[in-house]
Structure formats: C-alpha cells, structure tokens
Amino acid sequence: MIQHPLRILIVAAEMVPFAKTGGLADVIGALPKALRAAGHDVCVVMPRYGWIAPERFDLQTILPALAVPIEEGYDQAMVQATVVADVPVWFVAHDTYFNRDGMSMYDDDDRRFVFFCRAALELTRALDWQPDVIHCHDWHTAIIPNWLRTVLRDDTWFMHTASLLTIHNLAFQGVFGHRVLEIAGVPQVDFEITEGSARNDTVTLLGRGIYYADIINTVSPSYAREILSPDAGHGLDALLRSRRDRLYGVLNGIDGDVYNPAHDHNIAASYSLYQLEGKATCKAALQTMLGLQVDAKIPLLSVISRLTNLKGFDLIDEIIESFLRIHGVQLVVMGTGQQRYHDRLTELQARFPGQVAFRLTFDEELAHHIYAGADMFVMPSRVEPCGISQMIAMRYGTVPIVHATGGLRDTVRDYQPITNDGTGFVFAEPQATALRQTIERALTLYTDAPVWLQLMLRGMASDFTWPAAAVHYIDLYQRAMAAHATDYERNA
Ligand code: GLC
Q1: Atom of ligand 1 nearest to the CA of 219
Q2: Is 277-462 the same fold as 7-253+467-490?
Q3: Is the CB–ligand 1 distance for residue 410 below 6 Å?
Q4: pLDDT above 70: residue 199
Q5: Looking at CB atoms within 10 Å, which of 6, 82, 92, 294 has the fewest?
Q6: Could you say which of 3.30.450.40, 3.50.50.60, 3.40.50.2000, 3.30.110.170 is the CATH number of the domain covering 7-253+467-490?
Q7: Which pLDDT score is estimated for 189?
Q8: Which residues make Cβ contacts (< 8 Å) with residue 217, sequence separation at least 6?
Q9: Among 391, 364, 383, CA closest to 466
Q10: What is the pLDDT of residue 202?
Q11: How much is the pLDDT for 4?
C-alpha cells in the first residue's frame, strides 16, 4: 500500500542537540528523523533559548517579525531556522521570554509557553506550510489542542488540522491561575477538568490538552494503563478514564546511530552480537578509568540516574553495602540528586576504595563507557513512563535489573530459568528486600557464564529503535486525523 505522506508539525520545549532537561529532548531529537526516513514531511518548532548560538547551529532568520495574538493584542516573534539530520527546525525567538539562562520554572511560564505555542501555529501560516497533524508534547504545548477545538475550530487554515498529545510524565502538568486562559484567549466556562477536584481555582494545561486532543498517548503501554488509576493519575485519572478510547501507549526508541557498541567512538573497543570480545576490553577500561580493581570476574554494577527516591535510589542505598561487603561487587554510580545520596556515595567510595566509583555529574561520554563496561544496570524507579537507560544498557549487553513499572515493565523480560528466556531481572514491589533478592538472583546467574552470555545476547538483539516506534506514531497520526474529521462533522 502506498502511504500518503503526512505533514507533521512537532512542537516541544526541548530537543537535542539544542536544549535538554530530560528524555523528552532525546525523543524530539530522534522521532522526526525516523518519520522523515519513512517518507513524511515533518518539521519541529521549539523556543530559541538564550544559549542556542546562531553561529554554532547555523540559524537563519526566516521571519523577522511574526505577529502573534496574545491576550487581547499582538506581540512579535522572530522565527529562525536550521536543519538537523534532514529535519527542518524552527525556533521561536523573543528576547523577553526566551533569552534567559533556563528553559522553564519562571513565574511567567504561562505567558511564555502560550506565546510560544501560538507563534508555532502562526508561523505555519506565514510560511504557507499547512500541517495535517500537530504533535504536541507535555504541558508546555498542551494549549494547542484546546485552541484547535475552540477558537481556531473554524479557522480556514487549521480546521482540518488534527492533534496528538504525548504525555512524557503525568507528574508535570503546567498548573497556573485562571489568568492563563485570558492570556491564551480561550473560554473557561466550557471546561470542568476533574470531577470533584478541589483544585478548581487553578488551570491545568496538561488536563486541557488531554480533554481536547484528538488522540492522546504516553510513552509505554503499561504507563498508559497505570495513569488510569488514582494512585498514578496525579488527579487527572478521572479525565483520562473518560478519554480512554483515545489513549494509547507507544514505547520510545533509542537512537541506533548514537547507541551502538559496534560503531561507538566513545568506548574502548567495539563489539557486537557476533563479536563480543570487545566488551571485556571495555570493562577493563572502565575499571582503570574509575580507579577500580581491574578484574574481569568481579561483577560490576552500574547506575546512571537522578539520585532520588522517585528513581528508587533509597532502595539501592538500603542494600548496597552488604553487596559490597559480602559479595565483593563493584559499583559505579553517575548522576546528581538528593544531597544525602551524594554524601552517602562519597562515604562509600572512601570506605571501599577500588570497589566503588561515584561521579557526581552527568557526562555523556562517561555514560557510554559505563553502558559498555558494566555487567549489570540497576534501575529500580518507582515510576518510569518509559525510561531509556535500560534499553541502552541492553543494547550494550549490560543486563538490567528493574522494578516492574511503566516502560521498564514493557522493555525488560524477567529471566526464566526453566525456559532460559528473558533479557534481565524484574521485581514486582518497590521494596529493598525485593531488590536484594533480585540482585542475588543476578549474581548467582552471573557465575554461570554460558547462560549469562545468552541473557546478554537476547538483550542486545532486542529492537528498540526509532523506526519501529515511528510506525506506531504514523498510525496515531492517522487515527488523530480520522477522529478529528468525525468530531468536526458531528459538531458541525
Ligand atoms: C520522561 C519520562 C521518561 C521517558 C521520557 C521520554 O522523562 O520520565 O520515563 O523516557 O520522558 O519520553
């Protein structure tokens, strides 16, 4: 079947290589490439933050003055553009709103992101590039579906434009006072966000997006189910349940060009499914680099994470010392987070020299060395919408040990001794004893080299690449367009 190419506008607050606070930026860096490769016409819009240097990224000003409706008047944006990996990226520039040191967490975030979103829409008109679907990400862009279904519903340029809203983490909702609706110019009367909510003095932009988007998705099938329950719904579960027929889960991919031990210039030796020797070289190199005892036989456990309880670091904290003492394992931790964990890891590093390495930083190059050189990757997150590190670890033959939640549950299959299947170790309850037993299970299997090797190889062979994810997104874009057309007719 010949597929009609779609025009897809991706709107987001961050994208690698320009700006990154979390996994969202990786998704926006990778998904458009995969959509282009599948033959679709895709462009990305993001804010031009102060540090995105025009010379470094070859930004060209394509619209010196774009009029953007805001509140009851207009303000002006400048639009700049560049191309990365074949994907056009448009930047909304505005000195007061975006020329700052950070991306968000400012008092005027409501105004800044409403302005950004409206500029993203208006620039398509100015450039005569009419999108079939607008793919919005997280609260920053969630006002767009609201506009498309209300004030822009009969706008000739946008009336056939569908919307897809992707929720990367339901915990971040963009909660503001009612003033944000005046800034955005949308009516408030048409909307009750949650049944029986005590928070009706506020506006939740993400909730508005969920209410109005043609289709909604999260970044794993399990997370899409979990957020329907009050436990994980962050006050939006009732609304999500009311829209469950429009809610999907699509796993993110990882960028196979960046994360591939066969062609990774950051690591000490390359290796692959068919030629695994290099992995031992990478382990020795990592041990040397971090001042650990160089010994191929000592199990090397790794963590790359924010060091917080949400990521389950308290569970690691509770049990790790006995593994260092009794089992003599090595531990490498890279990341930043709660001060008490910085102190604790610094102390462990001093008490277990040659055995513990702590790097209080996030260093992309070191991350590659860790993924390649470690034996196991510990990721006991309490909540994980998708998670990316566990997929990268598997790609590098580093066996993940994870809590069964969200994307961790969907990407790691627990080792089954009887059938000799699985790609890692999974535990059900986020409790220290469960983590302890699971690491014990892993350490026991580690001594059985041939079986361990098969476990590694199954992980390395898993397909978590973006082309696979893009197929699902293309399906969702088509569903969004179909739903949009039907709803439009119905309300005509
Ligand atoms: C958020 C989630 C993470 C996910 C990422 C990209 O950061 O917490 O699980 O991988 O978004 O979708």
Answers
A1: 12
A2: yes
A3: no
A4: no
A5: 294
A6: 3.40.50.2000
A7: 57
A8: 164, 165, 166, 167, 224, 247, 248, 249, 250, 476
A9: 391
A10: 86
A11: 82
